[in-house]
Design goal:
Blueprint (H helix, E strand, L loop, with lengths): L1 H31 L10 H12 L5 H16 L15 H13 L2 H23 L17 H91 L5 H28 L14 H10 L3 E7 L7 H22 L4 E7 L4 E9 L21 H11 L3 E7 L2 E9 L13 H4 L15
Parallel strand pairs: 1-2
Antiparallel strand pairs: 2-3, 3-5, 4-5
Helix pairs in contact: 1-2, 1-4, 2-3, 2-4, 3-5, 4-5, 4-6, 5-6, 6-7, 6-10, 8-9, 9-10
Length: about 450
């Protein structure tokens, strides 16, 4: 429909003019014999009105001017008067009005309506007056005078002409309103898509800030350990060569300076300026126990031999489990069944978390199929944590369950190597989260 309107908008007026001209010529040829051409009185009005229709969408003012020139020319008898069946040529003015109401601006529309009201009055006078033709249809020439004819028949004829003009103008306005509505609908879709992307980016950026704060704490702890170990080794190794002692001292000094810088960053990120211990995998059990007290039915299981993960990866596991339980309680309500399974048998920890889908979510759909789904804060945050821990995360409905699957490889640092140590602290936001489908969050 939209493509059709676009084609008609650009080519409708010329096409209508050509059809208008051809049909009339064919009709006159059939009525007058082999010599229609320019030998019949309606030739000049037909050519002018055809030009008026053809220029309506291109040059609205020229189109109105052509109609005005035709009527003035007939009033002063420069253009010959038409026969009684030629007056329908005037309908070309109303066809032009329809195209102007469709494609013109507000000023052009007002001028077109005003001009056509004046045109209708002039047309009515010439169609009834005995001085400008041979009558029209059922209105034969009135030899009792133009005043008598206008008083008795002017209202009827002008009303018919105004009705035709109004119908053509209304069609043009409806076409313009349809185009405006389509344009607004497209703009609304684009705006909603932009807002959704902005919301996701904001959620991810906020989660990155939170992750950076957590990793800063882990890094500060590691630097403190390095400083203590270097100082202790240096004091216990007085008999070692001086280059060894100097190296140990440089390690301790550099680690101490880095620790101070990390502490400043931590105090700048935290609202209260205090450093809190970060949760590890060992805290997942107490977390589940607290959530059971909140009326969640949690089943926890493990397979394989547990492997020691880095502090950053343990924090990521804890936060992912915490978010899964929170979402299950928020979307499923009290009594929701949740199953959490840790699989240590592969090249990394595979975390499976599933919960019963709420009744409002359609069954049998994947997270990739939720085209109009509302993105929350939880899913992008979990995916970002898994990515920064070296792994990946997927979410989505699976039958009657909502499933979260995360994979964190063994021996992968939470921070990827950078060219400068400070980049590991301040440039965490430069990484892109792993792709995947959205879900409830």
């Amino acid at each position: 429909m939209e493509r059709t309107l676009r084609v008609v908008r650009h080519w409708g007026a010329p096409a209508a003019a050509a059809i208008f001209f051809v049909l009339w010529c064919v009709g006159e040829a059939g009525r007058m014999g082999p010599w229609p051409g320019f030998y019949w009185p309606g030739a000049i009005p037909l050519l002018v009105m055809t030009a008026a229709i053809g220029t309506a969408t291109w040059k609205p003012y020229l189109s109105l001017g052509l109609t005005a020139v035709l009527l003035v020319g007939q009033l002063v008898h420069i253009v010959p008067a038409m026969l009684s069946n030629h007056w329908a040529i005037y309908l070309g003015s109303f066809v032009s009005l329809g195209f102007i109401m469709w494609t013109g601006n507000k000023r052009q529309r007002i001028l077109a309506v005003s001009a056509n009201v004046l045109f209708v009055l002039v047309m009515t006078y010439m169609m009834i007056s005995a001085r400008y033709g041979d009558g029209v249809g059922w209105f034969r020439p009135m030899y009792l005078g133009d005043g008598f004819a206008l008083r008795n028949y002017g209202g009827q004829l002008s009303s018919v002409l105004l009705l035709v003009a109004a119908a053509c103008g209304t069609l043009g306005i409806l076409a313009a309103l349809y185009e405006d509505r389509r344009a607004l609908s497209k703009a609304q879709v684009l705006t909603q898509a932009s807002l959704k992307e902005t919301e996701i980016e904001l959620v991810i950026e906020q989660e990155r800030t939170r992750i950076a704060r957590d990793l800063h704490d882990v890094l500060a702890h590691s630097l403190a350990v390095i400083t203590a170990q270097a100082d202790g080794t240096r004091y216990l190794s007085k008999g070692q060569p001086k280059p060894v002692l100097d190296a140990l001292e440089n390690i301790a000094v550099s680690a101490r300076h880095a620790l101070v810088d990390a502490q400043r960053v931590i105090e700048g990120v935290r609202d209260d300026g205090m450093v809190a211990p970060q949760p590890l995998i060992s805290d997942v059990g107490p977390l589940m126990e607290r959530m059971r007290q909140g009326s969640l039915e949690i089943e926890h299981s493990e397979s394989g031999v547990p492997v020691e993960l880095g502090a950053g990866q343990q924090l990521a596991v804890f936060r992912i489990v915490q978010e899964c339980l929170t979402n299950a309680l928020k979307h499923g309500g009290r009594g929701t069944a949740v199953r959490v399974h840790f699989d240590w048998s592969g090249p990394g920890l595979t975390l499976h978390a599933s919960s019963t889908l709420p009744a409002s979510v359609p069954l049998g759909e994947t997270d990739a199929g939720q085209a109009k789904e509302r993105y929350g804060r939880g899913v992008p945050g979990m995916r970002e944590r898994a990515h920064l821990a070296g792994g990946w995360l997927t979410v989505g409905p699976d039958g009657e369950q909502f499933r979260v699957t995360a994979f964190l490889p063994y021996g992968t640092a939470s921070l990827q190597p950078t060219s400068h140590p400070s980049e590991a602290l301040t440039d965490l936001g430069a990484r892109t989260p792993a792709g995947g489908a959205g879900g409830l969050g």
